[in-house]
Design brief:
The protein is an alpha/beta fold and 373 residues long. The protein is 37% helix and 14% strand. The strands form three sheets. Strands 1-9-8-5-4-2-3 form a seven-stranded mixed beta sheet, with helices on both faces. Strand 6 and strand 7 form a beta hairpin. The longest helix has 22 residues.
Length: 373
Protein backbone atom coordinates (compact mmCIF):
# COMPACT_ATOMS: atom_id res chain seq x y z
CA UNK A 1 0.00 0.00 0.00
CA UNK A 2 1.98 2.94 -1.30
CA UNK A 3 1.81 6.07 0.80
CA UNK A 4 0.49 4.24 3.87
CA UNK A 5 -0.20 6.73 6.63
CA UNK A 6 1.15 6.22 10.11
CA UNK A 7 -0.45 3.29 11.97
CA UNK A 8 -0.38 4.27 15.66
CA UNK A 9 0.11 1.74 18.41
CA UNK A 10 -2.82 3.15 20.37
CA UNK A 11 -6.12 4.24 18.83
CA UNK A 12 -7.44 6.59 21.50
CA UNK A 13 -8.00 9.44 19.05
CA UNK A 14 -9.94 7.05 16.80
CA UNK A 15 -12.10 5.94 19.73
CA UNK A 16 -12.99 9.55 20.43
CA UNK A 17 -13.81 10.22 16.79
CA UNK A 18 -16.07 7.16 16.61
CA UNK A 19 -17.95 7.84 19.84
CA UNK A 20 -17.61 11.63 20.09
CA UNK A 21 -21.37 12.31 20.17
CA UNK A 22 -21.94 9.82 23.01
CA UNK A 23 -18.88 11.15 24.88
CA UNK A 24 -19.95 14.78 24.54
CA UNK A 25 -23.49 13.92 25.67
CA UNK A 26 -22.06 12.10 28.69
CA UNK A 27 -19.84 15.07 29.57
CA UNK A 28 -22.79 17.43 29.33
CA UNK A 29 -25.02 15.19 31.45
CA UNK A 30 -22.45 14.84 34.23
CA UNK A 31 -21.27 18.44 34.35
CA UNK A 32 -24.77 19.89 34.14
CA UNK A 33 -25.60 18.12 37.41
CA UNK A 34 -22.58 19.70 39.11
CA UNK A 35 -21.54 16.53 40.97
CA UNK A 36 -17.91 16.28 39.84
CA UNK A 37 -16.75 13.92 42.61
CA UNK A 38 -18.64 11.00 44.18
CA UNK A 39 -21.58 11.43 41.82
CA UNK A 40 -24.17 8.70 41.19
CA UNK A 41 -22.28 7.34 38.15
CA UNK A 42 -19.53 6.08 40.46
CA UNK A 43 -21.95 3.93 42.42
CA UNK A 44 -23.46 2.70 39.13
CA UNK A 45 -19.99 1.81 37.91
CA UNK A 46 -19.14 -0.06 41.12
CA UNK A 47 -22.38 -2.04 40.91
CA UNK A 48 -21.82 -2.83 37.25
CA UNK A 49 -18.20 -3.96 37.58
CA UNK A 50 -18.83 -6.05 40.70
CA UNK A 51 -21.66 -7.87 38.92
CA UNK A 52 -19.53 -8.37 35.80
CA UNK A 53 -16.71 -9.90 37.86
CA UNK A 54 -18.96 -11.96 40.16
CA UNK A 55 -17.94 -10.01 43.25
CA UNK A 56 -19.97 -8.63 46.14
CA UNK A 57 -18.16 -5.31 46.41
CA UNK A 58 -16.21 -2.85 44.27
CA UNK A 59 -14.40 0.34 45.23
CA UNK A 60 -13.43 2.75 42.46
CA UNK A 61 -9.99 4.28 43.08
CA UNK A 62 -7.54 6.48 41.20
CA UNK A 63 -5.55 3.64 39.62
CA UNK A 64 -4.89 -0.09 39.68
CA UNK A 65 -1.59 0.77 41.38
CA UNK A 66 -3.52 2.30 44.29
CA UNK A 67 -5.87 -0.69 44.29
CA UNK A 68 -2.91 -3.09 44.64
CA UNK A 69 -1.46 -1.03 47.47
CA UNK A 70 -4.81 -0.97 49.27
CA UNK A 71 -5.14 -4.73 48.73
CA UNK A 72 -1.78 -5.35 50.41
CA UNK A 73 -2.53 -2.88 53.20
CA UNK A 74 -5.96 -4.36 53.93
CA UNK A 75 -4.41 -7.86 54.07
CA UNK A 76 -2.08 -6.79 56.88
CA UNK A 77 1.08 -7.18 54.80
CA UNK A 78 4.11 -5.19 55.97
CA UNK A 79 7.83 -5.04 56.54
CA UNK A 80 9.83 -8.25 56.05
CA UNK A 81 6.89 -10.14 54.55
CA UNK A 82 7.77 -11.84 51.26
CA UNK A 83 5.40 -11.45 48.32
CA UNK A 84 5.67 -13.76 45.31
CA UNK A 85 5.28 -11.88 42.03
CA UNK A 86 6.27 -12.33 38.40
CA UNK A 87 9.50 -10.73 37.28
CA UNK A 88 7.97 -9.88 33.91
CA UNK A 89 5.26 -7.24 34.01
CA UNK A 90 4.65 -3.50 34.16
CA UNK A 91 6.40 -1.77 37.07
CA UNK A 92 3.06 -1.11 38.83
CA UNK A 93 2.80 -4.82 39.66
CA UNK A 94 5.68 -4.47 42.10
CA UNK A 95 5.86 -0.85 43.32
CA UNK A 96 2.95 -1.32 45.78
CA UNK A 97 4.98 -4.15 47.38
CA UNK A 98 7.97 -1.83 47.80
CA UNK A 99 5.79 1.02 49.05
CA UNK A 100 4.35 -1.12 51.84
CA UNK A 101 7.84 -2.24 52.92
CA UNK A 102 7.52 -5.92 51.95
CA UNK A 103 10.06 -7.91 49.94
CA UNK A 104 9.23 -8.97 46.39
CA UNK A 105 10.35 -12.46 45.47
CA UNK A 106 10.48 -12.74 41.70
CA UNK A 107 9.10 -15.79 39.92
CA UNK A 108 10.08 -16.94 36.43
CA UNK A 109 7.54 -17.24 33.61
CA UNK A 110 6.21 -19.85 31.21
CA UNK A 111 7.92 -19.47 27.80
CA UNK A 112 4.67 -19.66 25.83
CA UNK A 113 2.35 -17.53 27.94
CA UNK A 114 4.72 -15.04 29.63
CA UNK A 115 2.96 -15.45 32.98
CA UNK A 116 4.19 -16.92 36.28
CA UNK A 117 5.52 -20.47 36.19
CA UNK A 118 3.51 -22.00 39.03
CA UNK A 119 6.09 -24.73 39.69
CA UNK A 120 8.75 -22.05 40.18
CA UNK A 121 6.26 -20.18 42.37
CA UNK A 122 5.88 -23.19 44.66
CA UNK A 123 9.64 -23.67 44.86
CA UNK A 124 10.12 -20.11 46.12
CA UNK A 125 7.71 -20.29 49.05
CA UNK A 126 9.48 -19.82 52.40
CA UNK A 127 8.31 -19.35 56.01
CA UNK A 128 8.42 -15.59 55.32
CA UNK A 129 6.06 -15.79 52.33
CA UNK A 130 2.83 -13.98 53.12
CA UNK A 131 1.09 -13.53 49.77
CA UNK A 132 0.95 -14.25 46.07
CA UNK A 133 0.37 -11.28 43.81
CA UNK A 134 -0.95 -13.10 40.73
CA UNK A 135 -0.52 -11.07 37.54
CA UNK A 136 -2.56 -11.96 34.47
CA UNK A 137 -0.82 -10.65 31.38
CA UNK A 138 -1.64 -9.38 27.88
CA UNK A 139 -5.32 -10.38 28.09
CA UNK A 140 -5.42 -13.90 29.48
CA UNK A 141 -5.47 -15.48 32.93
CA UNK A 142 -3.23 -17.72 34.96
CA UNK A 143 -4.60 -21.20 35.82
CA UNK A 144 -6.94 -20.19 38.64
CA UNK A 145 -7.67 -23.57 40.24
CA UNK A 146 -4.00 -24.44 40.67
CA UNK A 147 -3.19 -20.98 42.00
CA UNK A 148 -5.97 -21.13 44.57
CA UNK A 149 -4.85 -24.61 45.69
CA UNK A 150 -1.25 -23.41 46.14
CA UNK A 151 -2.43 -20.42 48.16
CA UNK A 152 -4.73 -22.50 50.35
CA UNK A 153 -2.17 -25.26 50.94
CA UNK A 154 0.45 -22.75 52.11
CA UNK A 155 -1.96 -20.39 53.93
CA UNK A 156 -1.07 -17.48 51.65
CA UNK A 157 -3.06 -14.35 50.82
CA UNK A 158 -3.98 -14.37 47.13
CA UNK A 159 -4.26 -10.97 45.41
CA UNK A 160 -5.23 -10.77 41.75
CA UNK A 161 -3.62 -8.18 39.47
CA UNK A 162 -6.07 -8.18 36.59
CA UNK A 163 -5.04 -4.82 35.16
CA UNK A 164 -4.62 -6.31 31.69
CA UNK A 165 -7.33 -8.95 31.61
CA UNK A 166 -10.80 -7.48 32.14
CA UNK A 167 -13.30 -9.77 30.43
CA UNK A 168 -11.00 -12.78 30.10
CA UNK A 169 -11.88 -16.20 31.54
CA UNK A 170 -10.13 -19.31 32.82
CA UNK A 171 -12.56 -22.24 32.76
CA UNK A 172 -15.62 -20.84 34.55
CA UNK A 173 -13.71 -18.12 36.42
CA UNK A 174 -13.75 -14.56 35.12
CA UNK A 175 -10.90 -12.12 35.67
CA UNK A 176 -11.52 -10.10 38.80
CA UNK A 177 -13.14 -12.94 40.76
CA UNK A 178 -10.22 -14.76 42.44
CA UNK A 179 -8.42 -14.26 45.74
CA UNK A 180 -9.35 -12.04 48.66
CA UNK A 181 -8.99 -8.97 46.45
CA UNK A 182 -8.79 -8.29 42.72
CA UNK A 183 -7.46 -5.13 41.12
CA UNK A 184 -8.49 -3.70 37.74
CA UNK A 185 -7.09 -0.91 35.61
CA UNK A 186 -9.02 1.47 33.41
CA UNK A 187 -5.96 3.21 32.05
CA UNK A 188 -6.70 4.72 28.59
CA UNK A 189 -4.73 1.92 26.89
CA UNK A 190 -6.82 -0.92 28.32
CA UNK A 191 -9.68 -2.86 26.66
CA UNK A 192 -11.97 -0.48 28.56
CA UNK A 193 -10.18 2.77 29.28
CA UNK A 194 -10.99 5.99 31.08
CA UNK A 195 -10.19 9.31 29.44
CA UNK A 196 -7.83 9.83 32.31
CA UNK A 197 -6.88 7.42 35.09
CA UNK A 198 -9.03 4.96 37.04
CA UNK A 199 -8.83 1.64 38.85
CA UNK A 200 -10.97 -0.63 40.98
CA UNK A 201 -10.56 -2.98 43.92
CA UNK A 202 -12.97 -5.92 44.08
CA UNK A 203 -13.63 -8.21 47.04
CA UNK A 204 -16.21 -10.45 48.69
CA UNK A 205 -14.94 -9.47 52.16
CA UNK A 206 -17.03 -6.73 53.79
CA UNK A 207 -14.28 -5.76 56.25
CA UNK A 208 -11.83 -5.21 53.39
CA UNK A 209 -14.49 -3.30 51.45
CA UNK A 210 -15.22 -0.93 54.32
CA UNK A 211 -11.52 -0.32 54.98
CA UNK A 212 -10.70 0.45 51.34
CA UNK A 213 -13.64 2.87 51.12
CA UNK A 214 -12.00 4.80 53.96
CA UNK A 215 -8.50 4.52 52.51
CA UNK A 216 -9.52 6.12 49.22
CA UNK A 217 -11.05 9.17 50.96
CA UNK A 218 -8.56 10.37 53.58
CA UNK A 219 -9.59 7.68 56.07
CA UNK A 220 -13.10 9.10 56.37
CA UNK A 221 -16.09 7.13 57.62
CA UNK A 222 -18.83 8.38 55.27
CA UNK A 223 -21.57 7.45 57.75
CA UNK A 224 -20.17 9.49 60.64
CA UNK A 225 -17.96 12.00 58.82
CA UNK A 226 -15.09 11.13 61.19
CA UNK A 227 -11.50 10.58 60.00
CA UNK A 228 -10.77 7.18 61.52
CA UNK A 229 -7.58 5.97 59.84
CA UNK A 230 -4.69 7.41 57.85
CA UNK A 231 -6.03 7.46 54.30
CA UNK A 232 -5.27 8.75 50.84
CA UNK A 233 -6.84 10.87 48.12
CA UNK A 234 -7.64 8.21 45.54
CA UNK A 235 -10.86 9.20 43.82
CA UNK A 236 -11.96 8.90 40.26
CA UNK A 237 -14.19 11.66 38.94
CA UNK A 238 -17.87 11.16 38.24
CA UNK A 239 -17.13 11.82 34.55
CA UNK A 240 -14.57 9.01 34.31
CA UNK A 241 -17.03 6.58 35.88
CA UNK A 242 -19.72 7.65 33.41
CA UNK A 243 -17.37 7.24 30.43
CA UNK A 244 -16.32 3.78 31.62
CA UNK A 245 -19.98 2.81 32.06
CA UNK A 246 -20.60 3.88 28.47
CA UNK A 247 -17.92 1.47 27.23
CA UNK A 248 -18.81 -1.39 29.54
CA UNK A 249 -22.11 -1.69 27.72
CA UNK A 250 -20.08 -2.78 24.67
CA UNK A 251 -17.47 -4.94 26.41
CA UNK A 252 -18.34 -8.20 24.63
CA UNK A 253 -18.36 -6.47 21.24
CA UNK A 254 -14.98 -4.83 21.92
CA UNK A 255 -13.41 -8.13 22.97
CA UNK A 256 -14.82 -9.89 19.90
CA UNK A 257 -13.30 -7.23 17.67
CA UNK A 258 -9.89 -7.68 19.28
CA UNK A 259 -10.17 -11.44 18.79
CA UNK A 260 -11.07 -10.91 15.13
CA UNK A 261 -7.95 -8.80 14.64
CA UNK A 262 -5.83 -11.39 16.46
CA UNK A 263 -7.26 -14.12 14.22
CA UNK A 264 -6.15 -12.19 11.13
CA UNK A 265 -2.67 -11.76 12.57
CA UNK A 266 -2.53 -15.46 13.48
CA UNK A 267 -3.64 -16.56 10.02
CA UNK A 268 -1.24 -14.25 8.20
CA UNK A 269 1.82 -14.71 10.44
CA UNK A 270 1.64 -18.30 11.67
CA UNK A 271 3.65 -19.69 8.73
CA UNK A 272 6.64 -17.43 9.32
CA UNK A 273 9.21 -19.69 10.98
CA UNK A 274 11.18 -16.80 12.44
CA UNK A 275 8.36 -15.52 14.65
CA UNK A 276 6.02 -17.03 17.22
CA UNK A 277 2.44 -15.81 17.51
CA UNK A 278 0.64 -15.71 20.90
CA UNK A 279 -0.27 -18.98 22.56
CA UNK A 280 -3.46 -19.39 24.58
CA UNK A 281 -3.96 -21.64 27.59
CA UNK A 282 -6.45 -24.27 26.43
CA UNK A 283 -8.89 -23.30 29.20
CA UNK A 284 -8.70 -19.54 28.56
CA UNK A 285 -10.71 -16.94 26.70
CA UNK A 286 -8.29 -14.23 25.54
CA UNK A 287 -9.10 -10.52 25.28
CA UNK A 288 -5.86 -9.50 23.52
CA UNK A 289 -5.11 -6.44 25.56
CA UNK A 290 -1.79 -6.87 23.76
CA UNK A 291 -0.85 -8.90 20.68
CA UNK A 292 2.71 -10.03 21.39
CA UNK A 293 4.92 -11.88 18.92
CA UNK A 294 8.34 -13.34 19.63
CA UNK A 295 11.35 -13.07 17.33
CA UNK A 296 15.13 -13.41 17.52
CA UNK A 297 15.26 -10.37 15.22
CA UNK A 298 13.05 -8.26 17.48
CA UNK A 299 15.03 -5.02 17.55
CA UNK A 300 15.74 -4.93 13.83
CA UNK A 301 12.15 -5.92 13.00
CA UNK A 302 10.85 -3.12 15.23
CA UNK A 303 13.05 -0.59 13.42
CA UNK A 304 11.96 -1.90 10.02
CA UNK A 305 8.28 -1.62 10.90
CA UNK A 306 8.82 1.88 12.28
CA UNK A 307 10.52 2.87 9.01
CA UNK A 308 7.33 1.70 7.30
CA UNK A 309 5.02 3.84 9.46
CA UNK A 310 3.99 1.03 11.82
CA UNK A 311 4.30 1.84 15.51
CA UNK A 312 5.12 -1.09 17.78
CA UNK A 313 6.13 -1.39 21.44
CA UNK A 314 8.15 -3.74 23.62
CA UNK A 315 6.45 -5.26 26.67
CA UNK A 316 8.87 -5.65 28.44
CA UNK A 317 12.55 -5.09 27.67
CA UNK A 318 13.69 -5.38 31.30
CA UNK A 319 12.94 -7.74 34.12
CA UNK A 320 11.23 -5.73 36.87
CA UNK A 321 14.22 -5.82 39.22
CA UNK A 322 16.56 -4.49 36.52
CA UNK A 323 15.18 -0.96 36.88
CA UNK A 324 17.46 1.43 38.81
CA UNK A 325 14.67 1.79 41.37
CA UNK A 326 15.69 -1.57 42.85
CA UNK A 327 19.16 -0.35 43.77
CA UNK A 328 17.55 1.05 46.92
CA UNK A 329 15.25 -1.83 47.87
CA UNK A 330 15.55 -5.34 49.19
CA UNK A 331 14.30 -8.07 46.87
CA UNK A 332 15.00 -11.71 46.08
CA UNK A 333 15.60 -13.21 42.68
CA UNK A 334 17.21 -16.36 41.36
CA UNK A 335 16.77 -18.84 38.51
CA UNK A 336 14.90 -16.70 35.96
CA UNK A 337 16.23 -18.05 32.63
CA UNK A 338 12.98 -17.69 30.71
CA UNK A 339 12.55 -14.00 31.57
CA UNK A 340 16.17 -13.32 30.64
CA UNK A 341 15.52 -14.92 27.25
CA UNK A 342 12.02 -13.61 26.51
CA UNK A 343 12.71 -9.95 27.29
CA UNK A 344 14.97 -9.75 24.23
CA UNK A 345 12.43 -11.26 21.82
CA UNK A 346 8.92 -9.91 22.49
CA UNK A 347 7.30 -7.28 20.29
CA UNK A 348 3.77 -5.91 20.59
CA UNK A 349 1.83 -5.12 17.41
CA UNK A 350 -1.04 -2.61 17.21
CA UNK A 351 -4.40 -4.05 18.25
CA UNK A 352 -7.56 -2.05 18.95
CA UNK A 353 -11.12 -2.16 17.57
CA UNK A 354 -10.61 0.91 15.38
CA UNK A 355 -7.69 -0.70 13.51
CA UNK A 356 -8.77 -1.21 9.88
CA UNK A 357 -8.47 -4.57 8.12
CA UNK A 358 -6.33 -3.02 5.39
CA UNK A 359 -3.95 -1.75 8.07
CA UNK A 360 -3.70 -5.20 9.65
CA UNK A 361 -2.90 -6.76 6.27
CA UNK A 362 -0.35 -4.02 5.57
CA UNK A 363 1.39 -4.80 8.88
CA UNK A 364 1.40 -8.53 8.11
CA UNK A 365 2.71 -8.01 4.58
CA UNK A 366 5.55 -5.87 5.86
CA UNK A 367 6.50 -8.52 8.41
CA UNK A 368 6.46 -11.17 5.67
CA UNK A 369 8.59 -8.97 3.43
CA UNK A 370 11.11 -8.42 6.24
CA UNK A 371 11.68 -12.15 6.65
CA UNK A 372 11.94 -12.69 2.89
CA UNK A 373 14.95 -10.38 2.70
Amino acid sequence: MKGQKNIPFFGIDRIYKKYSKDIINTVDTVYSKGKILMGPDIEKFEEKISKLCNRKYAVAVNSCTDALYFALLSAGIGKDDEILVTGFSYIASVTPILRIGATPVFVDIEPNYYMMNLSDLENKITPKTKAILAVHLFGQMLPVNRLEKIAKKNNLVLIEDSAQSLGSKNKNKIAGSMGITSCLSFDPTKVIGAFGTAGTLLTDNKTVYNKVKKLRYHGKNLDTGEIEILGYNSHITTLQAALINLQLNNLEQLINKRNNIANIYNEELSNIEEIETPKIYKENNHTYHKYVIKSENRDDLKKYLGDNNIKTMIHYDKALFEHPLFNNYQYRTENLPVINNIKNKVLSLPIYPELHDKEIIYICNKIKKYFQK
